[in-house]
TrEMBL record:
Stretch forming the signal peptide: none
Reactions catalysed according to its record: L-kynurenine + H2O = anthranilate + L-alanine + H(+); 3-hydroxy-L-kynurenine + H2O = 3-hydroxyanthranilate + L-alanine + H(+)
Gene encoding the protein: kynU
NCBIfam families in the cross-refs: kynureninase (TIGR01814)
Assembly with partners or alone: Homodimer.
Binding site for pyridoxal 5'-phosphate: 85-86, 113-116, 153, 182, 185, 207, 237, 263
Source organism per UniProt: Paracoccus nototheniae
Protein name: Kynureninase
PANTHER family, A to Z: KYNURENINASE (PTHR14084)
Length: 395
């Protein structure tokens, strides 16, 4: 079994804090501060605009993309970085719809992240398509011969429910449709295998389990069979075949490079590169085994200590990602009390206490402390103080 104490030591975790919110924002890798400072001092300061060539800034989105590819079951040259996750969802979905011009139905589920559904709704309106949203358990039955694109987030952001990517992708293909997967709550948390599942497109963010920092850039993957044909509606300068020819008309770059849009966020990518160093000797199978160990222990502990809380995640670890949620009628106040006591999770409306478990830095001691503090807060009623009911802008 991999020694996760080595990866835990690679992160700055504030004293007295048990951090179970890496599914929202990963903690800072210790190496990131120095890497960004060096980039600013040695590259931006000294090279100025020459850094695009001398320091490799221009090629950075592909270089970093190759490192993420290994964590999602993709190959070299198949992943590129840049922009936000919503932009990448828009690009991938528009490209997938264009590959099925005789069909105009997008299928998703009610557990998908709202931003993905907002993008799909707007794109459907602009392209004369229809967005069909069903219950997560009804997705397989809703795949029909009119479907153009199946668009799902692999791990549900509220419940942690994990879709069977290979099965649903195969069902979509049998119906003549394409499958687009959002890996926001998967990459760095579970054993993703896009190639093995034969998916068509995938996108994801890097500020959660990949620990790239707030606002870290997103990634996009296109299966090689679509790389030469995919034509996203959002065509940017960096995705041109010859950006510095300054042609008046757009010509898509070969392969995944056409999915680049704007100028890459070089400073943010430097921090992300430092964060990715921790993965060099770690296998996804070890990651997944540790994730299951932690989440199973947490569920058992909470149910024994706090029977009044209701499990809101699948009990079977094979159907769950690396997060666990419980329901409580005063979940927001309970979570604020937890945070004040040094156990950081988060709240999701209307009544969900959500806890993310990142094997890179969480361990069984974190589980034990979180269960103990949660039990105390629930049982002594200390959550019911006025300040814990005051809603903040970000929950």
């Amino acid at each position: 079994m991999f020694d996760f104490s080595k990866t835990r030591a690679a992160f700055h975790l504030p004293d007295g804090v048990t951090y179970l919110d890496g599914n929202s924002l990963g903690p800072m890798p210790r190496a990131a501060q120095g890497r960004v400072a060096a980039m600013m001092a040695d590259e931006w300061s000294e090279m100025l605009i020459g850094g695009w060539n001398k320091a490799g800034w221009y090629a950075q989105p592909r270089r970093v993309g190759d490192r993420i590819a290994r964590l999602i079951g993709a190959g070299p040259g198949e992943v590129v970085m840049g922009d936000t996750l919503s932009i990448k969802v828009f690009q991938a979905l528009s490209a997938a719809l264009a590959l099925r011009p005789d069909r105009r139905v997008i299928l998703s589920d009610s557990g998908n992240f709202p931003s993905d559904l907002y993008v799909a709704e707007g794109l459907a309106r602009a392209m004369g398509a229809t967005l069909r949203v069903v219950d997560p358990g009804d997705v397989a039955q809703a795949i029909g011969d009119d479907l153009a694109v199946l668009m799902l987030t692999e791990v549900d952001y509220r419940t942690g429910r994990r879709h069977d990517m290979a099965d649903l992708t195969a069902r979509a293909h049998r119906a003549g449709a394409l499958a687009l997967w959002d890996l926001a709550h998967s990459a760095g948390a579970v054993d993703v295998d896009l190639t093995g599942a034969d998916a068509d497109f995938a996108v994801g963010c890097t500020y959660k389990y990949l620990n790239g920092g707030p606002g870290a850039p997103a990634f996009i993957w296109t299966h090689p069979r679509h790389a030469a044909a995919a034509q996203p509606i959002l065509q940017g300068w960096m995705g041109h075949a010859a950006p510095f020819a300054f042609d008046a008309e757009y010509r898509p770059a070969p392969g995944i490079e056409r999915m680049r849009v704007g100028t890459p966020p070089v400073i943010a990518l430097a921090a992300l590169e430092a964060a990715l160093d921790v993965w060099d000797d770690l296998s996804l199978s070890d990651l997944r085994a540790q994730s299951i160990r932690l989440t199973q222990a947490f569920i058992a502990g909470v149910e024994a200590a706090c029977p009044e809380l209701v499990l809101n995640s699948p009990r079977d670890p094979q159907g769950r990602g690396s997060q666990v949620s419980f329901r409580h009628p005063q979940a927001y106040a309970v979570m604020q009390a937890l945070i004040a006591a040094g156990v950081v999770g988060d709240f999701r409306a209307p009544d969900v206490l959500r806890f993310g478990f990142a094997p890179l830095y969480n361990d069984l001691a974190d589980v034990e402390r979180a269960v103990g503090v949660l039990a105390r807060i629930v049982h002594d009623g200390s959550w019911d103080r006025a300040e814990f009911h005051q809603k903040a802008d970000v929950t």
